[in-house]
Backbone:
């Protein structure tokens, strides 16, 4: 049993449900995260990730279900218990007319930090997010990546027990994104429990100890990456790069014997098959018959993207767009 | 309370960096008070210049010149210059600078004493309607007195059944002239309870723009919601009511600072006389509470920062007009004076006026302070209840 698996449960969310009128945004989500564990909620836009996070941090009243932080119930009125949560919203939530230092100091004080402790934490976080050199500049003079890093820094300033990160790298340049992911990985190693939502498979694979695949307000499956891939059994993942009508090609190959599921992401077809070697000639022939031209063929090790395709019948990124 | 203060301080820091807040809270009202006071300087009191050509020189002509026309000089309303001839009088009017000329004809006194008709000629200058009208009124009043004297003489002569001895006739004229008028006007010094123009414009612009600075706190909630910081605060260990309190505190502090600057600056720059400091402080606090309360109620109906700002501004301007911040209600129809008392602006101006004048004290302004506080607490209470939706997790 791993070290994380033996550590105490920090977040326990059970059967969370939320509806907006007739639309069920979240339909019974349960998540458990232990100390030092990073849990990824992987799913396309509209899957229910942000609604789930908002209910977990008490920002949104849930219809049913319960949330506890270290055993203490969390809801919209649980003011004191919320101090143990750090929240990094998907959209920027910083004051553009204040400096990075002032932003950090304001939110730090809201969480009860003060004096030398506040000063040292602000300095530490500024160093961690790489903004020490621009700490006294107004944040409306920052690049998008710098603002994103500050957005994250505010959430972890008070060293919360649980850090909620809602798609923190959306709209971030690759260099800043890499820096952000490294910072988050370091936090997990320091014992913080992290709930990380994303629709980027690579981020979930890189950061998360366990991943919950969410779609349509439900967690379809959860576990370590190996456990999730194992759900696919002996299936192979075939990736075809084509020119032509991808939708028609997907429809054609999905009807073939031996094809478990198929989806498209741009000019690439993601196809799960029982036996790549046996099915591949028929696949290529069917795609050509559907009017597309095959430009490249890859048989790859199944990843979380393949798991999402396997579970939902749709490619993750196509769903996200 | 600690968190509310944090939010208020943060808001103040933002507002001080935002020049538009400073502009609305201090620069605009101060600038307008300065401009209006400068433009309308000298229009507070009527002043005229008259010339008198006394071509008679008799006793009644002297009475007209010294007692009647001379009373204008004593009241510091006019300067009166004597000239020797009618042509000099007309020339003075034609030359400009003279409001009107009184021409007392030769034989004036004798004509009156003998009951003959007589004419006092008033030559008015172009563009000096008020000055001419005052001169005409004075002459008319004197004429009314003359008619009464002539009536007295005629009555006695009729009773005597024959012409009167000139000595008796003179005595009768003296007695009639000395008789008290049947109706006497008493100066109640109403004007002493009015504010001087510099004070009026300083106070009116201050209370008008106070409504713009008072709304800043709550309107910023919409901005915080738009930029995501409200959600971030709500996700932390902060009660929604604390956020509202912080916003109100921020608006209150900004308003107190702005009003303090305005009172001091207008006193120093244009000689505004706001009144006793303690009374003024109470009136300012009352005005701020009323402004924040009404602004809160208006903002609580809005859905965006833009609609909140527009609605608050419309209400501020409307109440300002009704409350007499553009024109003193004392110069407006009775209905306007009544309507003004439905507005905090009207009570603010009235309260300041009540603390001015002979025998006035701070206590005279207390009713206005209480009304302002009541207006603010009632509207603010409803506004806060409604505004909870802006900070409540959904």
Residues:
């Amino acid at each position: 049993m791993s070290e994380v698996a033996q550590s105490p449960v920090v977040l326990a969310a059970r059967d969370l449900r939320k509806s907006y009128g007739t639309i069920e945004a979240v339909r019974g989500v349960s998540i458990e995260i232990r100390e030092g564990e990073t849990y990824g909620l992987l799913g396309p836009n509209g899957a229910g990730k942000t609604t789930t996070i908002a209910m977990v941090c008490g920002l949104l009243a849930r219809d049913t279900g319960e949330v506890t932080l270290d055993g203490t119930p969390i809801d919209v009125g649980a003011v004191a218990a919320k101090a143990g949560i750090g929240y990094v919203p998907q959209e920027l939530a910083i004051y553009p007319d204040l400096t990075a230092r002032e932003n950090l100091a304001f939110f730090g004080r809201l969480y009860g930090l003060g004096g030398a402790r506040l000063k040292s934490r602000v300095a530490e976080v500024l160093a961690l997010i790489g903004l020490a050199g621009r700490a006294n500049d107004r944040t409306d003079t920052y690049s998008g990546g710098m603002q994103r890093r500050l957005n994250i820094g505010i959430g972890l300033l008070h060293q919360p027990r649980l850090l909620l990160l809602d798609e923190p790298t959306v709209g971030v340049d690759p260099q800043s994104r890499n820096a952000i992911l490294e910072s988050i990985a370091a936090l997990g190693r320091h014992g913080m429990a992290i709930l990380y939502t994303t629709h980027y498979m690579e981020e979930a694979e890189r950061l998360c100890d366990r991943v919950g695949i969410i779609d349509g307000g439900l967690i379809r499956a959860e576990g370590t990456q190996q456990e999730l891939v194992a759900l696919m059994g002996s299936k192979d993942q075939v990736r075809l790069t084509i020119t032509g009508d991808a939708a028609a090609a997907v429809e054609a190959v999905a009807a073939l014997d031996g094809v478990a599921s198929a989806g498209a992401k741009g000019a690439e077809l993601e196809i799960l098959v029982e036996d790549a070697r046996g099915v591949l000639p028929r696949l290529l022939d069917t795609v050509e018959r559907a009017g597309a031209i095959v430009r490249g063929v890859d048989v790859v090790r199944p990843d979380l993207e393949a798991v999402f395709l396997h579970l939902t019948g749709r490619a993750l990124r196509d769903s996200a767009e | 309370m600690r968190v509310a203060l944090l939010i208020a301080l943060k808001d103040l820091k933002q507002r001080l960096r935002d020049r538009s807040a400073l502009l609305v809270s201090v620069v605009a009202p101060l600038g307008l008070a300065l401009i209006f006071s400068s433009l309308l300087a000298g229009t507070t009191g009527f002043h005229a210049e008259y010339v008198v050509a006394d071509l008679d020189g008799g006793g009644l002509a002297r009475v007209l010149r010294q007692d009647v026309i001379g009373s204008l000089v004593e009241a510091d309303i006019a300067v009166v210059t004597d000239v020797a001839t009618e042509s000099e009088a007309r020339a003075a009017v034609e030359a400009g600078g003279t409001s009107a000329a009184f021409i007392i004809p030769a034989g004036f006194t004798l004509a009156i004493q003998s009951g003959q008709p007589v004419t006092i000629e008033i030559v008015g200058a172009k563009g000096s309607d008020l000055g001419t009208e005052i001169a005409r009124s004075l002459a008319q009043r004197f004429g009314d007195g003359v008619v009464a004297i002539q009536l007295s003489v005629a009555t006695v002569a009729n009773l005597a059944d024959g012409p009167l001895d000139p000595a008796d006739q003179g005595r009768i004229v003296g007695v009639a002239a000395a008789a008290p008028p049947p109706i006497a006007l008493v100066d109640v010094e109403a004007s002493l309870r009015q504010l001087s123009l510099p004070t009026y414009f300083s106070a009116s612009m201050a209370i008008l723009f106070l409504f713009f600075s008072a709304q800043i706190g709550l309107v910023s909630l919409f901005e915080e919601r738009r930029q995501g910081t409200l959600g971030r605060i709500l996700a932390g260990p902060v009660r929604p009511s604390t956020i509202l309190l912080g916003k109100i505190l921020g608006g209150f502090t900004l308003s107190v600072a702005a009003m303090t600057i305005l009172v001091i600056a207008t006193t120093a720059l244009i000689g505004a006389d706001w009144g006793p400091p303690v009374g003024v402080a109470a009136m300012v606090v009352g005005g701020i509470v009323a402004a924040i309360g009404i602004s809160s109620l208006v903002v609580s109906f809005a859905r965006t920062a833009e609609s909140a700002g527009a609605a608050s501004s419309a209400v501020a301007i409307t109440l300002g007009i009704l409350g007499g911040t553009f024109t003193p209600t004392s110069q407006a129809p009775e209905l306007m004076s009544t309507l003004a008392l439905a507005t905090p602006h009207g009570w603010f101006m009235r309260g300041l006026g009540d603390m001015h004048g002979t025998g006035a004290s701070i206590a005279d302004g207390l009713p206005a302070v209480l009304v302002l506080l009541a207006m603010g607490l009632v509207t603010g209470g409803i506004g806060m209840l409604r505004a909870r939706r802006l900070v409540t997790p959904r």
